[in-house]
Amino acid sequence: MSERSGQVTAESVPVAGGAAVEDDATDSTSATSAPGGSAPTRKRTLADSAPATTAERLTERLRQVRGRGALEIGLVFVLVQLGCVIYYLVDPVGFPYLEKSNFNVLSQSIPVLAILAIGAGVLIIAGEFDLSLGANFTFCALVFTRWYADGASAWAAGGMALLTGIAIALVNGILTTKARIPSFIVTLGMMLFWEGAALFYNGTTAALMVPSETVKQVFTADLGFFRGQVLWLLGVGVLFWLLVHRHRLGNHIFAVGGNPAAARAISINPDRVKIIAFGILGLCVALAAVLTAVRTGSVQPGTGRGMELKAIAATVVGGVALSGGRGSVLGMVLGAALILTVQDILLLGGAPGFYLDLFVGLIIVAAALFNRMIEGRAK
């Protein structure tokens, strides 16, 4: 403690246990004797604040997960699953939730929406939106189906679909960042453009394909209670979890979405980061389109209409802040799973069709309010 200013300095932190500590030459030169002849002190470093025990590391991990909005949605998802299991045990005939046929349906629909939510969520974290996601999805599915039906291999058709999805998204990113037009306006216009382009490319009839057994095994294999799309979701989820939460690019995405001016001040190029985020969305959209095309064997020109809203809804439910700078890949996946689980519950319960949108809408609004409360506490 400084006698003049009364401020606490790094040298005033006592050594744990009050015993004298012999450090190397650097530390010994910084050690001083406290007033009154008490134990010597040393400078405090960042390592002193790092979690040391398993319990402390677990607490820190839970704090990080909660800060990204994934902990709460994870608890809600677990509670919903427990409720479904109990309901099934009470009335297995009236509510066949744990039946193989029901799991097959969920394991085909959840991965597609979750992959779309990952792409949309990464872009939202970067501070931008893409309302042309559904039109991009339709066009990529048509490209894959048409190329495969015309004799191209599944890999060539899939590669062309991936290039198409990424190119469409990059055009949106370049127009948004270089022309300084809000992404909402750019992607709204491009949504209408690509919907018309899909009709021009394929016409009003459905594009048909008959995937080979090998293609089915690669993209939609029957794994008993689950389908092959789950494996694709696991791969994509792990890849983008590492990219977003364990790579420097992920730090840049969070920084640009949270405060572009501050990111620019530390030599981060916000335009470049946002364009990359648009490209990530395009990749996810194209992959989801290929998975859907192989499963259905046909693609209508309006197949992806409304998917952009579902993907954004899944990110909101998963804890992604619409203002940017906050979210997690795990939350995006859980948000998609929760929305489709609620729809499945309503269908199994025999609820009328219009109830689906009603309950999903309530979930989205409730999740947005909850996220807003969390952001308010953080501030």
Automatic annotation (TrEMBL):
Sequence segments annotated as region (Disordered): 1-51
Subcellular location: Cell membrane
UniProt key word Transmembrane helix: yes
Compositional bias ranges of the Low complexity kind: 27-40
Keyword annotations of the record: Cell membrane, Membrane, Transmembrane, Transmembrane helix
Main location: membrane
Compositional bias segments (type: Polar residues): 1-10
GO cellular component labels: plasma membrane
Pfam families linked to this entry: BPD_transp_2
Span of the signal peptide: none
Membrane topology designation: Multi-pass membrane protein
MF terms in GO: transmembrane transporter activity
Domain of life: Bacteria
Membrane-spanning intervals of the chain: 70-90, 110-126, 133-149, 155-175, 184-204, 224-244, 275-294, 354-374
Keyword Transmembrane helix on entry: yes
Record's protein name: ABC transporter permease
Organism the protein comes from: Streptomyces phyllanthi
